[in-house]
Design a protein that fits this description.
Belongs to the beta sliding clamp family. Helix content is 18%, strand content 41%. By secondary structure, the chain is α+β, with helices and mostly antiparallel strands. It folds into three domains: 120 residues, DNA Polymerase III, Chain A, domain 2; 109 residues, DNA Polymerase III, Chain A, domain 2 (Roll); 119 residues, Proliferating Cell Nuclear Antigen, CATH 3.70.10. It has a nine-stranded antiparallel β-sheet. Strands 6-2-3-4-17-16-15-10 form an eight-stranded antiparallel β-sheet. A hairpin with a 3-residue loop joins strand 12 and strand 13. Helix 1 packs antiparallel against helix 2 and helix 5 runs antiparallel to helix 6.
Length: 379
């Protein structure tokens, strides 16, 4: 196998597939990346068995500056190889595989020889045998990921909660995540209805990596789902993720359908106040911030306290306030994550009692997005 290629395009492709490569894998060959030179171009593959990424650098794309002299395949140690390519002196690189998978990389006056592995030993990618693909607007899908993935669980004791639950049917998409202390649910209406219905759970880790690959210039992400795999197609890149097994708990009954007290805020304004209060709460062992609502004075007061350092108290003026007097405590980190997901929106925070979960929703189109947080009992 021998080819030459532009360093910029090659580095971009290597960075893309490297997202899937882990140094902690139990299968040694998966610490490498697979390069296949074929008639259409160069196919790069990285995998950690949970996530697999395959990207194609096409020979007919002039930006790639790709010339394939002889076809073939090789697996090279990902970390070393990527670092070498990034530091080569010239804009073009030539790669040639010799006997015993010894691979020579040359650029200008610089040449490296590294030991490769037989590509035939590299695990095969999952086969997705379905003709139904779901087109999703790239920017919207990226937003869905960022709004829900904050609430996935990090605890492996309940593996199903480490993913985001998607339910797709007709022209509706619902994504929900919970770690049993908080919940995030996003609903979206698709422009064109789809055939059939889908119900699956994708690991939060996979979605985080996928989100990083969706560029602002991307228009569409195409999704195909089988029994245990999901395939996302982004331009010339394929992103495979395993699906989590098991039944996701029914979360619809967790979201309250009424409230006794409601306050409205600009999300960035409240976020800044919570961040100030959490400066001290983080110094305390229990990390709690308290909010007090006084309907008569139309004020909301935030308290943060650390016995070792001191305390903070701040009066806020909500855009509106209705309902009963209330004092409620919560984890400020959960609140900050929730508020960041609303960006610039005006939000309603609805409370039922000091010990029941409360919800954050946008004032407009409130059914489309809900963040729910369970309060902390402080007595």
């Amino acid at each position: 196998m021998k080819f030459s290629i532009g360093r910029t395009a090659f580095t971009k492709g290597l960075n893309t597939v490297s997202r899937a490569i882990s140094t902690k894998t139990t299968i040694p060959i998966l610490t490498g990346l697979k390069i296949v030179a074929g008639p259409d171009g160069l196919v790069l593959t990285g995998s950690d068995a949970d996530i697999s990424i395959e990207t194609t650098l096409k020979a007919d794309d002039p930006d790639n500056m790709l010339v394939i002299e002889s076809e073939g395949a090789i697996v090279l140690p990902a970390r070393f190889f990527t670092e070498i390519v990034k530091k080569l002196p010239k804009d073009t690189i030539t790669l040639e595989v010799g006997e015993n998978f010894q691979t020579m990389i040359t650029s200008g006056q610089s040449s490296f020889t590294i030991n490769g592995l037989d590509a035939n030993n590299y695990p095969h990618l999952p086969e997705i045998q379905t003709n139904d693909s779901i087109p999703l607007a790239a920017d919207l899908f990226k937003q869905i990921i960022s709004q829900t993935v904050v609430a996935v669980s990090n605890q492996e004791s309940r593996p199903i909660l480490t993913g985001v639950h998607f339910v797709i049917s007709d022209n509706h998409v619902m994504a929900v995540a919970t770690d049993s202390h908080r919940l995030s649910q996003r609903k979206v209406t698709l422009e064109t209805p789809i055939n059939g219905s889908y119900d699956f759970v994708i690991p939060g880790k996979s979605l985080t990596e996928l989100s990083k690959m969706i560029d602002d210039g991307q228009d569409e992400v195409s999704l195909s789902v089988t029994e245990n795999q999901a395939l996302f197609v982004i331009g010339n890149t394929l992103f495979y993720s395993r699906l989590l097994e098991g039944n996701y708990p029914d979360t619809t009954r967790l979201i309250p359908d009424s409230h006794d007290t409601r306050i409205s805020f600009e999300a960035p304004e409240l976020l800044a106040a919570i961040e100030r209060a959490s400066l001290l709460s983080h110094e305390s062992r229990n990390n709690v911030v308290k909010i007090t609502i006084d309907p008569d004075k139309k004020t909301v007061t935030i308290y943060g306290n650390s016995p070792d350092v001191g305390n903070v108290e701040e009066d806020l003026e909500p855009k509106s306030l209705e309902g009963n007097e209330l004092e409620i405590s919560f984890n400020p980190d959960y609140m900050k994550d929730a508020l960041r997901s609303f960006t610039q929106a005006t939000i309603n925070i609805d409370f039922t009692s000091a010990l029941r979960p409360f919800t954050l929703t946008p004032t407009e189109d409130s059914d489309s997005f809900v963040q729910l947080i369970t309060p902390i009992r402080t007595f």
